Amino acid sequence: MTGNAQTPPAGDTNRRAFYFTGGFLTNTRVRRILTLAGHDLRLGKPGPGDDVLVWGHSPYAARGEAAARATGARIVRVEDAFLRSLHPGRGGEPPLGLTIDRRGAWFDSRQPSDLEHLLATRPLDDTALLDRAREVIARMRAGHLTKYSAVDPALPTPAPGYVLVIDQTRGDASIRLGGARDTTFREMLVWAQQEHPGARILIKTHPETARGHRSGHFGPEDTDDRISLCTEPLSPWTLMEGAVAVYTVSSQLGFEAILAGHKPQVFGQPFYAGWGLTEDRNPVDRRQRRLTRAQLVAAALILYPRWYDPYRDRLCGLEDVLATLEAEARAWRQDRQGHVAIGMRAWKRAPLQKVFAGRGPALRFADSPGAATRHGRPVMVWAGKETADLREACDRAALPLLRVEDGFLRSRGLGADLIPPLSLVTDDLGIYYDPSRASRLEHLIAGAAALPPDRLRRAERLIAALRATGVSKYNLGGASALPDTGGRDVVLVPGQVEDDASIRLGAGKVATNLALLRTARARYPGAFVVYKPHPDVEAGLRAGRIAPDDLAGLADHVASCADPMALIAQAGRVVTMTSLLGFEALLRGVPVTVTGAPFYAGWGLTEDLGTLPARRRARPSLAALVHAALIAYPRYHDPVTGRPCPVEVAVERLASGQIPAPALRLRALAKLQGWFAGHAWLWR
């Protein structure tokens, strides 16, 4: 993945930890994180050397506190970490991290917590740690990640220039134990109006208030021509951009306001107040140190919590949690309105349902443009099934049209063998293999050319993982040995399916495997030319076979049923029309000559012989290309947990083969569907 796994700190390993609250018994995720962090969870009577776990300062914490006083055991306060999940925990959303504090609770300003001790005493001057913290801030901003990340940055936001006032839920312990009362919220609203005469006031409600689970301190009765409520799931990062000032009591949004560049007005005593990054109306006298934003993040988000990796069932670093939230938030944001799909073969419907309905309404299927647009949902179509009628119907209904295709890290096996994909792409502009019009991938590649180095480091790590594991699109394996080349440079020529859409739309003048071989031989007459037939062609499933007599004099070796990654490792160059093997060769540092216009050509990374779109003017690095094509463009689905997942998890699953085989009923369904398609004349 993208961060370092965590291990329990000294003194935590195998400590007996007793609890007196049902939540520690029934919440599987909380129990697992605590166990991984070194706590031996038990029921019964603790001893003087044992721990007693309590949930913060919840109403049930008194039971554990009483047991600890009676036995001499030590209280350990457990709470959700600051990047928790998509949604609040009510309703069963498990946390991605916990804070486990032996001194107090991070929101209780009456005494220092472990977090306050970190902030007050830890040097926080390690360059690598602070670089990580800065990258965390940039990644949270780019991904619109917050404590509950079910926010939609695409929603319209109020015009800039408002004062942002942050509400909280009534009865929250961070208010009572953070030097504030319910009346503090009224005081805060008055000061916001007085200190910004004439400015609009925007009150941001808490997510649990908006969901109806708890009540806040402000409601519709508090609004007027100047004051309005924000109850929609708007991104806090977007709200911060439009705010001229931020007012809070003790909300975590005050912490995120600091990360967004504000110096919030703070009326309570939250953990982030008192370090020179806030204007404190009720200061904590013992907090005298001055910190930077990076130091605050290093302590509060990297060093303090215990983070959990749900894909590998282990503790992890913060970066892995960011990757998890990015994947889950993206799925929720794209799918929350639901989709209607058209042009999807029957065997693909169940896998599509898993990918596109896991975080939203069930996927509906339609068989005509009119039926597809009737529901008022975004419309999906398998890219090769798009028609002018469908585009016109979506335009009339003002509905997005998303073209769906397999991603570039697909499976261990061919789609023709009904292996469900681990990755899919959705494109609202075009599709990556059609150079006649711009695609969303083209836009992402052009934009990636300007990404800062910290955003590209993840792509560089991904390239290293792909090289180390040999993972590619289909991961078929096979033979790899070449005959004696006589010292000649090896030129690898990958065959393609000749009636494939990428050939029809993007190959240009060289549009057959035979023509490609002739081009390669003419351009590199002294090379040892290796021809690699396409797996679907070798299996007799698709068009593109070259007769043996035609191969004579063009190919020195035909690598049948061969491992493409092993061939790339032995090649000095790849010559291709539009094959993805050209992209995979680039990933592995092998020069690529392109006769067509695949998505990776025209950016200065390949030798281009064909006609390319003039709009491809950007000059991204290889890491930038990989960031666009493998991180930003596809969505990944983990076949083990059934969750949206980061690309790193998909690579690990593909490398390990930890992928369930397709059900036999899917094979039977696809064969039956193919039979009906081939015998349509019976119904004419």
What does this structure look like?
Helix 5 crosses helix 11 and helix 17 (453-469) packs parallel to helix 25 (647-656). This protein is elongated. The strands form four sheets. Strands 2-1-3-4-5-12-13 form a seven-stranded mixed sheet, sandwiched between helices. Strands 15-14-16-17-18-25-26 form a seven-stranded mixed sheet. A six-stranded parallel sheet has the order 8-7-6-9-10-11, sandwiched between helices. Helix content is 35%, strand content 15%. Mean pLDDT is 91; it is low at 669-684. The chain starts with 14 loop residues before the first strand and ends in a 6-residue tail after the last helix. The protein has 684 residues and is an alpha/beta fold. Among the domains are: 147-288, Rossmann fold; 317-447, no CATH class; 452-656, Rossmann fold, CATH 3.40.50. It is built from 26 helices and 26 strands.
Query: Count of DSSP E strands?
Result: 26
Averaged pLDDT, please? 91
Rg from alpha-carbon coordinates: 29 Å
Report strand order across the widest sheet: 2-1-3-4-5-12-13
Any idea what the CATH architecture of one domain is? Answer: 3-Layer(aba) Sandwich
Overall CATH class of one domain: Alpha Beta
Number of helices: 26
> Which word captures the global form?
elongated
Helix/sheet category: alpha/beta
Looking at the structure, the CATH topology of one domain is: Rossmann fold
Helix content: 25-40%
The termini sit apart by: 55 Å
What are the segments in which pLDDT stays under 50 over at least 5 consecutive residues? 669-684
Beta-strand proportion: 15-25%
Main pleated-sheet profile: 7 strands, mixed
